[in-house]
Amino acid sequence: MAQTLVVIGHGMVGHRLLEALAERDALAGPGRTGAGGWHVVVLAEEARPAYDRVHLSAAFTGSTGEELALAAPGFFERHGIDLRLGDPAAHVDTAARTVTSASGDVIGYDALVLATGSYPFVPPIDGADADGCFTYRTLDDVEALTAYAADPAVSTGVVIGGGLLGLEAAGALRTLGLTTHVVEFAPRLMPLQVDDGGAAALRATIESMGVAVHTGVGAGGVQIHPDGRAQALRLTNGQEIGADVVVFSAGVRPRDRLARECGLAVGDRGGVVVDAHCRTSDPYVYAVGECAQSVDGKVYGLVAPGYQMAETVAEALAGAGELTFTGADTSTKLKLMGADVASFGDPFAPEGRDGAVSVVFSDAREGVYKKLLLGPDGALLGGILVGDAGAYGSLKPHAGRMLPGPAEAFILPSTEGIELPGADALPDDAVVCSCHNVTKGQVRTAVAEESLTDLGGIKKCTKAGTGCGGCLGTLQAVLDAEMAAAGIEKARGLCEHFTLTRAEIYEKVATEHIRSFSELLETHGAGGEGCAVCKPVVANILGTLAPDLGLGHILEGEQATLQDSNDLFLANLQKDGTYSVVPRVAGGEITADQVIAIGEVARDYGLYTKITGAQRIGLFGARAEQLPDIWRRLGGAGFESGQAYGKSLRAVKSCVGARFCRFGQGDSIQLAIDLELRYRGLRTPHKFKGGVSGCVRECAEARGKDIGIIATSKGWNLYVGGNGGAVPRHADLLAADLATGELFALIDRFLMYYVRTGERLERTAAWVERLGGSGAGLDHLRAVLIEDELGICAELEAQMERHVSAYQDEWQAVLEDPAALERFGAPARGAVTTDGVAGGCDAPGVDFGGAGALEPGRGRAVVLPDGSRAAVFKDRAGTVYAVGDRDPFSGADVIANGIMGTRDGVPVVTSPMHKQVFDLRTGICLDDPDVALPVLPVLRTQS
């Protein structure tokens, strides 16, 4: 006979408890394989099911409650769970073992779980209840704040609290377009996660975004306008900050009222006291998450410890009871307002205490701070990473253990020949996913027993990687190591549709004069319709070889269906679905009239402007339909497309050189202009950048570029294979003291050889290393490009000349072509009708104007009468599919701009935002089956 379990609260931890019980087949629902199990009643305070609070800020950019929802479709029905939304518990009677809900229902229980979470702390200051004062905790908070900030009179916001949630709230205010301040009582930001050095780097990054930071001062009171609305915040030092909005994010307190009232033991500072099995002082009552005080005396405010508590209680209720919770890892990795922040272990122990010593790298220019704390025996005690948290996945599992390599190798920007240890250096008991407490050993077992070959399989089998995502790099490393140990060779081919590599595909296209993707797929493909991997690669190759193949614009005919969103709209996609515009400014040289023209365009279209690191002016926030008019005006001012959107030349940076600098030995400005105008538009395996410095002082940072040139007293030194980014690499000297003509000839050869032999998304730095480490790659390049060992130097130079002669500004060509311009129109207006729906169902169908309006393999956005958008696709056989246009991970309407193809024979579309793949038949995300797009029937007459 089923017993009754009452769960009070349905947040992330409460829902994880339900999932854990379901995984143990401990629920008495229709999906149970045997008799017995728990009948569960959930009393939820909010009017919506559990949702992802970790990504709550996504709601400010359009994500809905449905998109953030945690429960898979049909989960509650399948397991017989009685979910009562908007009906919280009002009273618990532990003697009678009953719970009374706010609506007056009395429910008896055999076991009770308190999952009530926490509430935001609001300082007891005057005016805290004024209109314009908010907390930041729930979707209701987000909706209320968004609505209030929409008032044109609201322009400035202040966040009280500079911790995790406070900085997230500050980012939200910026997203809403408010001038933003952060007030933190502690002397530094994020005082619980980072030290003074890390906080300084974080503060510099945040202030560079225009956010004012006030530390070491508290909130004194909210000044209220006579109309009852907040108008200013008074600080404890007497300063006043104009504030139309005040957001309180000064910490949380456990919600333990029910426990106190029914006599359960509660900690001195709050939190329901539990034992190692998360059982309270009453043996029939458990507590999990932020409302519980663990056996170690702590209340954990992170989701990962809450999930571990949920697993512990599920184990006890399922009968095994072997799991215990005695404390948790509080490691954190997240991105706050664009800055990576991570901490793990115990990074705060004073240096020298018990022999502890720190290893620190700091770069104030880049906002990077990294600190590792080592014990007297060299064991890693903890660490802090700000600005660059790329090593987090490698470091965190080693907390409390000896590092398998020098500490410096993990934090210096260049390893200087030191190879970082691989996944094989991690012991099997190392936790690689903190959110779900998954060890390396569990991942290895899953890979071996389930024959897994990709991250999607690991996620499904172990749940690792489905939380914050900070462990994905480590999981991939473990997977690669296991496959290598088992003798399973990673597929050489580009994707499931081609067994050839990119370089091999390039050779086939060039030598066989293949002029389309369809022809290539028919002659050298492995079946299917292509995908978001192979289609852009082939588009890139066809673009490079266009002068030799006699092809036109990249948006002509089938080529348009191959392009990723950036190349399709000739602009860079941004996180909200808008685009950036970056005009070419060769060598960084720009006239006053051109600066004014850019300013006028930005003003007239309401675009955000930013001076980029490549000495360019970026315009952000343009809608696709605005792009043609923007480029007409920019073209009229003498600008051409910078092609910052393609896998091509981004920019050539320069110093002022001999024209102005007293140390300059060469005209770096003119050389940078000449380089940029020669190599513009050349499509390569990945983007490439250049830099020219007029002397050895290297003000243009040329050795951090793919092509770096430094003037000498005898000519120019050419460096190749450098890059910045997550794994910086100094470029290597290929040749010295070159005359200008020699320099261009050698760069021609270098780039065309890279085009021929580079692999997909392989920067020149990685390409040079692949050609041979320890200098062997450079020796190979000298042999081929200088000594002409392969006899191809003249051929490479001639190919570059054909590219230069055939160059056209891609945007100017679009503006002159009415057919190409149609791609930039506003989304079509569609209808919804039940008349003649494909499949004979009664659900409304999308009327989008007929299948003839669609290109095979490319989507079309349709605005429906309710204001929502559909993304409609047609495959090569003529079958039409319609799904929701909103990407569930970013909240942007971009699915129609994704690339259609197949995966294992299934029709799919890949979101252009973060490349998640969705089944067009069911809408389910193949990378995360708990997420789905709505599927819309289409009219029979159009299918």
Q: Can you offer a commentary on this structure?
A:
The chain is of the alpha/beta class and 943 residues long. The chain is built from 28 helices and 45 strands. The strands form 13 sheets. The protein has a 5-stranded parallel sheet with strand order 3-2-1-7-19, with helices on one face. Strands 9-16-10-11-12 form a 5-stranded parallel sheet, covered by helices on one side. Helix 1 runs parallel beside helix 8. It is globular, with a radius of gyration of 30 Å. The two termini are 51 Å apart. 47% of the residues are buried. About 1% of the residues have low confidence.
Structural features:
943 residues, alpha/beta, five-stranded parallel β-sheet, 45 strands, globular
**What's the mean pLDDT score?**
88
Alpha plus pi helix count: 28
Class from helix and strand fractions: alpha/beta
Proportion in β-strands:
15-25%
Sequence of strands across the biggest β-sheet: 3-2-1-7-19
Summarize the structure.
By secondary structure, the protein is an alpha/beta fold.
Write the layout of secondary structure elements.
Layout: E1 3-8, H1 12-23, E2 38-43, H2 65-68, H3 75-78, E3 82-84, E4 89-93, E5 98-101, E6 106-108, E7 111-114, E8 118-120, E9 133-135, H4 139-149, E10 156-160, H5 164-175, E11 179-184, H6 196-208, E12 212-215, E13 219-224, E14 230-235, E15 240-242, E16 245-248, E17 252-254, H7 257-261, E18 272-273, E19 285-287, E20 292-293, H8 303-317, E21 332-336, E22 339-345, E23 357-363, E24 368-374, E25 380-386, H9 392-395, H10 407-411, E26 431-433, E27 438-439, H11 440-450, H12 455-462, H13 472-485, H14 502-512, H15 517-524, H16 534-544, H17 546-549, H18 559-562, H19 565-569, E28 572-573, E29 579-581, H20 592-605, E30 608-611, E31 617-622, H21 627-636, E32 649-654, H22 668-679, E33 688-693, E34 707-712, E35 715-720, E36 732-738, H23 740-757, H24 764-771, H25 776-785, H26 793-806, H27 810-815, H28 818-821, E37 828-829, E38 831-833, E39 845-847, E40 860-863, E41 869-874, E42 880-884, E43 899-903, E44 906-910, E45 917-919
